[in-house]
Specification:
- This protein has 134 residues and is mainly beta.
- The chain has one helix and nine strands.
- The protein has a four-stranded antiparallel beta sheet with strand order 2-1-5-7, with no helix packed on it. The protein has a three-stranded antiparallel beta sheet with strand order 3-9-6, with no helix packed on it. The protein has a two-stranded antiparallel ribbon with strand order 4-8.
- Keywords: Signal.
């Protein structure tokens, strides 16, 4: 009988813990706003806004011919948005980020990938750092 009481108490404690509400999570984000342009030689044209999280190799299933960095958005509390002029992005052909699919691009210089439509691939965006001093 003593075992039954202990077992019931332990079970109740685990049940209370399991149903507890999770703590509030920060739902903020830091993204580079990239425009995926598809403008092949046949004259068709489309552009799609894509949010690329900083520091995360990101894949989107889109046809493209070039990529442009438009702006940055930071919604995480207490985090200042970086200057868009200090952001660089690059497309890769593989999910590991080892086969470049474009030149690096930024706010001033877009990436011209092909005159014919190709797949978006994977894109990585990051904030440039100052070179280490010697």
């Amino acid at each position: 009988m003593h075992f039954t009481t202990i077992f019931a108490t332990v079970t109740a404690a685990f049940a209370a813990t399991a149903t507890a509400l999770p703590t509030e999570r920060d739902t903020g984000a830091a993204v580079a706003n990239v425009i995926a342009v598809n403008k092949p030689l046949d004259g068709t044209h489309s552009s799609t806004a894509v949010k690329i999280p900083f520091g995360k190799l990101t894949h989107v299933d889109l046809p493209i011919t070039n990529l442009m960095l438009k702006s940055v958005t930071v919604t995480a509390s207490g985090v200042a948005a970086p200057d868009v002029s200090k952001v660089t992005c690059q497309m890769y052909k593989d999910k590991y980020g080892v086969q470049p699919g474009s030149a690096a691009f930024n706010k001033k210089h877009e990436a011209y990938i092909s005159t014919n439509t190709v797949q978006f691939g994977w894109v990585l965006c990051y904030v440039n750092v100052s070179p280490a001093s010697a």
